[in-house]
């Protein structure tokens, strides 16, 4: 018998009802789980470790000169999403990605949303992520983000909320695919008992999205990587291999007559679509950082002339900036004339006096973030802060309210997870990947579920001890 | 294939082959250094001359000393021509094209690097280490042969191997030229050491059933098509793998490879000695370097 | 005033780069203050032309195969006049010019220099004077890669540094400010004819500030390009593959021609 426990009150558990009973969509799994002996499951976990280790020898030790490897821990209890929930998520994600693309097209062309007073111009144009060089660039199909990763959490009320949009170079999809492969290998019987939506066609979907991004017939697609010292190189190599396209570095490419070519042993070959996994500022040393060794001189010119497609486009970062995030629901209304299907986490913009008053009155219950800050710098976690820290932030907020936003402390849902002492609830989030060619959006049913392995922790990042789970979307 | 990928594959194979050849040479040097000078021994600087690192060695260590030369050429990470450095370069090249080689090739070459580092902690290069290097090279070659798809990738790997080997065999003969040129000085131990270095000791005796002579050793290592480390065999292979590559951009390289192969096939050992062994080897070394440059230009850095 | 320009740039390499690419912003555009009568570029290879996001006309020149030098020549005639503040918005929203760049990130010293300045033409002119006072014109102290913060700390610089410190300071006052590169007709020969100055968005128009010369740009100024900083607007940016050490020589000759 495996003991399943509820998380601390105030958190939603994916498998357990507050009464301790099993949620309907987890019943078959829980039934199966209780029939497994702990020692067999421990063996399976060990086997998973070894298999990932082997894949790790195949892939994950890129970037580590010593030849050692760092594995992201994998938990064998899946995160299960019922069909109806996914249907709503899918519609909400597609809607969001459509609005974000419309926003990007607008702010690099006519600036309608700013002129209409829906989004303040300072937040857009004075933003370091806004790329002036993209002003007026016409992209095929007006697609700016072919690939979007949206971070979702499930709140105490059981609803999903968007925490963050990732429109630059969202990563993690290779773990989604590897996790599923692993589960099918370890527990094939589970896949016979459940109708689980497949995810393994993601590379095919990605390739067809990329190919449709070009107006050329039978376009040549490549994956552009910073190189094998990059921590995500595994994923770059994996996706290139799965799509059957070349994995190139900047030095493999050159620009001639405003077209991009790659150097091959059979001469040079024109490139039509670059799935780039390099940040904007490294793409072309003549247009951005002059010290970039990773880019291709002249790429910006070829791009501006429409002779090559970059996925994602340059300058998409402005749409996933913390200062723009609060406006996404407004964008959906403005561009699509629709009601947002997915909610944002409630966000207070301190530059509005009424919202600032609310934040100041509830400081010890809120998380305060710097608008342009990244990586947890300049952040106040109210419930964990000392008196002095609270007073310090109060002063900063009053002095420069426009630099801050505040959100309620998040209640990530939990999912039963194997820990040293058996099974315990651990907090999780979800990153589905949305593809679009401008006409339609497509996604595989699922995503990457990240899990905070330390008890009580809400930090799911792999760099801080986070692990991953397979994500099952049940079919009706 | 991407030129950069071909370049990494080519140099992965070259560096691994170089490590093996160096181990062979050092093994012989170790054996010969135990002989008295009068019998061809004490030639401890040969590996330094062969790899062009004599000056670097002298600057750092002064007068060549057998055990110091062995350590310098085996494990010195600061010496780009040491066995350890060659293995590291081979592994780094493999690393950069990890997705283009098989898991078994990668595991073999990565393990070789990790173990070589452990060997290097242990101190001096000795026979056990050289045997190990040869074994690891055999293993990697075996993994390549047994698992690598016969695409252009394989051709570039083989090209790297044989261009390096041709260069090494020619260099080795050039360094030991005095043994071949001067029949009177021929010494059984020195000869056998040389033959063992290229793994031809048994073949020699099976073919000639005789104490080694300069001409015969030269014939064996320059002109015999059935000796896997002879120049002739290397040129046959280079020609074969180059011919398999598609496209027009390698025409100059292919032409030179065909010329070298034909010349080597229709040359007799007497002609070599009549023209002078030194001149002959000098010309060969130049041609091999030129061939490497042409391959580079045509395939590995194509603009 | 009619200006005649001859601007020659030459890069020489110790080795021979296998490939080099230059991005040129060497073509002036018509505006209220200038009308291009004739203009041509003499370049060592085929060039592709476009207009960038800032509205600058650019040429990309690529040289393939080993070469030891690159020569670029821009020459022509332009009619200039004193036009006053320019209300033309350009393709970008002016608030783009509120944004710092790597070269124009404001240090505490820059913010301090700007603090208290009036957000007006007079206030900016005063600020420009203080910038020049804090870092008098002195060539050879800074280089093309010197940031505004570093140049101010060095206490000296050339027009590029003056302009970058000034635009960084204006942005701390929430004033959109941009970097302008171009040519200046000089009476004396101490300053280079290649020049840089700044523009600040005040009262719905761009006001020019030639910080190095403590005056407003007039018919002696001919503009080539604008941007957030030097890198966005400079006349030539290049990269190359190999080639060893480089010597760079640029000479701009600007004359007033009689009608």
From TrEMBL, chain A:
The Circularly permuted ATP-grasp type domain sits at 78-452
Q: What is this protein called?
A: Circularly permuted type 2 ATP-grasp protein
- What lineage does UniProt assign to this protein's organism? Bacteria, Pseudomonadati, Pseudomonadota, Betaproteobacteria, Neisseriales
Q: Which organism is it from?
A: Crenobacter caeni
Q: Which InterPro entries match?
A: ATP-dep_Glu-Cys_Ligase-2, CP_ATPgrasp_2, UCP005522
What Pfam family is a match, any one? Answer: CP_ATPgrasp_2
Q: Where on the tree of life does the source sit, at the highest rank?
A: Bacteria
Region forming the signal peptide? none
UniProtKB/TrEMBL annotation, chain B:
Q: InterPro entries recorded for this chain? A: ATP-dep_Glu-Cys_Ligase-2, DUF403
Q: Where is the DUF403 domain?
A: 1-300
- One of its Pfam families is Alpha-E
UniProt feature coiled coil, ranges: none
- Name this polypeptide is given: Alpha-E domain-containing protein
Instruction: Supply the source organism for this entry.
Output: Crenobacter caeni
Automatic annotation (TrEMBL), chain C:
Q: Which Pfam families match?
A: Bact_transglu_N, Transglut_core
Please give the coiled-coil regions recorded for this protein.
none
Give residue ranges for domain Transglutaminase-like: 151-213
Q: Which domain of life is it from?
A: Bacteria
InterPro entries given in the database record: Bac_transglu_N, Papain-like_cys_pep_sf, Transglutaminase-like
PANTHER family of this UniProt entry? BLR5614 PROTEIN-RELATED, SLL1049 PROTEIN
Q: What's the protein called, per UniProt?
A: Transglutaminase family protein
**What is the species of this protein?**
Crenobacter caeni
């Amino acid at each position: 018998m495996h003991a399943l426990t509820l998380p601390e009150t105030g958190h939603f558990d994916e498998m357990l009802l507050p009464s301790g009973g099993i949620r309907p969509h987890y019943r078959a799994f829980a039934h199966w789980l209780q029939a497994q002996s702990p020692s067999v499951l421990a063996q399976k976990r060990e086997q998973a470790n070894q298999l990932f280790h082997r894949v790790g020898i195949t892939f994950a030790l890129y970037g580590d000169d010593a030849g050692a490897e760092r594995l992201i821990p994998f938990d064998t209890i899946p995160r299960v999403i019922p069909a109806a929930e996914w249907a709503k998520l899918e519609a909400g994600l597609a809607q969001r990605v459509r609005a974000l693309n419309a926003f990007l097209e607008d702010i690099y062309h006519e600036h309608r949303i700013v002129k209409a007073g829906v989004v303040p111009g300072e937040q857009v144009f004075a933003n370091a992520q806004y790329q002036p060089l993209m002003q007026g660039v016409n992209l095929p199909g007006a697609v700016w983000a072919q690939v979007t990763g949206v971070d979702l959490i499930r709140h105490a009320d059981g609803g999903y909320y968007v925490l963050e949009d990732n429109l630059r170079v969202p990563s993690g999809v290779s773990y989604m695919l590897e996790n599923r492969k692993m589960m099918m290998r370890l527990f094939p019987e589970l896949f016979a008992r459940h109708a689980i939506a497949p995810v393994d066609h993601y590379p095919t979907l990605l390739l067809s999205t990329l190919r449709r991004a070009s107006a050329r017939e039978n376009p040549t697609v490549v994956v552009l990587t910073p190189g094998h010292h990059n921590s995500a190189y595994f994923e770059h190599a994996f996706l290139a291999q799965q799509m059957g396209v070349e994995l190139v570095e900047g030095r493999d490419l050159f620009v001639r007559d405003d077209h991009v070519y790659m150097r091959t042993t059979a001469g040079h070959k024109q490139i039509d679509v670059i799935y780039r996994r390099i940040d904007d500022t490294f793409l072309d040393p003549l247009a951005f950082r002059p010290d970039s060794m990773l880019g291709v001189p002249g790429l910006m010119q070829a791009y501006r002339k429409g002779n090559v497609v970059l996925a994602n486009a340059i300058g998409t970062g402005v749409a996933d900036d913390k200062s723009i995030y609060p406006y996404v629901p407004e964008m959906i209304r403005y561009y699509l004339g629709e009601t947002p299907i997915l909610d944002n986490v409630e966000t207070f913009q301190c530059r509005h006096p009424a919202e600032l008053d609310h934040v100041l009155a509830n400081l010890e219950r809120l998380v305060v973030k710097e608008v342009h800050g990244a990586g947890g710098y300049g952040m106040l976690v109210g419930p964990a802060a000392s008196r002095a820290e609270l007073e310090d932030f109060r002063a900063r907020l009053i002095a420069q309210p426009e630099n801050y936003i505040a959100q309620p402390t998040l209640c990530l849902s939990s999912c039963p997870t194997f820990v040293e002492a058996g099974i315990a609830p651990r907090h999780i989030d979800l990153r589905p990947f949305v593809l679009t060619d401008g006409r339609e959006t497509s996604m595989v049913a699922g995503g990457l579920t990240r899990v905070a392995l330390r008890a009580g922790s809400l930090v799911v990042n792999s760099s801080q001890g986070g692990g991953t789970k397979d994500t099952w979307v049940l079919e009706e | 294939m991407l030129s950069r990928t071909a370049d990494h594959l080519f140099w992965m194979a070259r560096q691994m082959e170089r490590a093996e050849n160096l181990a062979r040479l050092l093994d012989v040097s170790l054996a010969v250094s135990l002989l008295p000078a009068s019998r061809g021994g004490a030639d401890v600087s040969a590996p330094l001359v062969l790899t062009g690192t004599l000056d670097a060695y002298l600057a750092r260590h002064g007068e060549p000393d057998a055990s110091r030369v062995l350590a310098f050429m085996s494990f010195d990470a600061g010496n780009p021509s040491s066995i350890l450095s060659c293995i590291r370069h081979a592994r780094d090249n493999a690393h950069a094209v990890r997705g283009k080689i098989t898991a078994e090739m990668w595991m073999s070459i990565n393990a070789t690097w990790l173990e070589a580092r452990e060997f290097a902690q242990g101190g001096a290069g000795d026979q056990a280490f050289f045997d190990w290097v040869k074994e690891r090279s055999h293993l990697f070659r075996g993994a390549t042969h047994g698992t690598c798809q016969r695409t252009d990738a394989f051709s570039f790997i083989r090209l790297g191997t044989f261009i390096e080997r041709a260069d090494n065999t020619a260099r080795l003969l050039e360094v030991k030229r005095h043994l071949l040129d001067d029949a009177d000085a021929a010494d059984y131990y020195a000869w056998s050491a040389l033959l063992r270095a290229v793994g031809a000791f048994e073949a020699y005796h099976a073919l000639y059933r005789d104490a080694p002579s300069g001409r015969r050793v030269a014939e064996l290592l320059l002109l015999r098509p059935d000796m896997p480390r002879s120049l002739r065999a290397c040129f046959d292979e280079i020609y074969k793998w180059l011919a398999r590559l598609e496209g027009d951009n390698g025409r100059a390289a292919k032409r030179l490879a065909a010329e070298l192969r034909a010349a080597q096939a229709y040359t007799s050992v007497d002609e070599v000695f009549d023209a002078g062994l030194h001149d002959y080897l000098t010309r060969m070394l130049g041609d091999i370097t030129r061939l490497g440059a042409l391959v580079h230009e045509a395939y590995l850095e194509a603009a | 005033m009619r200006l005649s320009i001859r601007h020659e740039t030459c890069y020489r390499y110790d080795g021979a780069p296998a490939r080099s690419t230059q991005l040129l912003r060497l073509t002036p555009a018509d505006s209220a203050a200038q009308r291009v009568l004739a203009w041509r570029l003499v370049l060592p290879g085929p060039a592709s032309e476009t207009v960038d996001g800032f509205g600058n006309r650019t040429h990309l020149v690529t040289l393939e195969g080993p070469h030891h030098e690159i020569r670029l020549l821009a020459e022509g005639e332009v009619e200039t006049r004193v036009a006053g503040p320019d209300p033309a918005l350009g393709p970008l929203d002016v608030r783009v010019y509120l944004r710092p760049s790597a070269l124009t990130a404001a240090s505490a010293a820059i913010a301090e220099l700007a603090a208290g300045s009036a957000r007006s033409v007079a206030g900016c002119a005063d600020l420009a004077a203080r910038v020049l006072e804090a870092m008098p014109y002195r060539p050879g102290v800074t280089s093309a890669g010197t940031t505004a913060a570093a140049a101010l700390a060095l206490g000296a610089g050339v027009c590029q540094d003056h302009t970058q410190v000034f635009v960084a300071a204006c942005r701390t006052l929430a004033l959109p400010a941009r970097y302008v590169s171009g040519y200046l007709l000089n009476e004396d020969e101490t300053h280079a004819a290649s020049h840089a100055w700044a523009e600040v968005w005040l009262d719905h128009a761009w006001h020019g500030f030639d910080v190095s010369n403590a005056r407003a740009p007039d018919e002696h100024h001919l503009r080539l390009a604008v941007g957030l900083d030097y890198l966005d607007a400079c006349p030539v940016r290049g990269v190359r593959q190999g080639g060893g050490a480089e010597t760079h020589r640029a000479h701009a000759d600007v004359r007033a021609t009689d009608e």
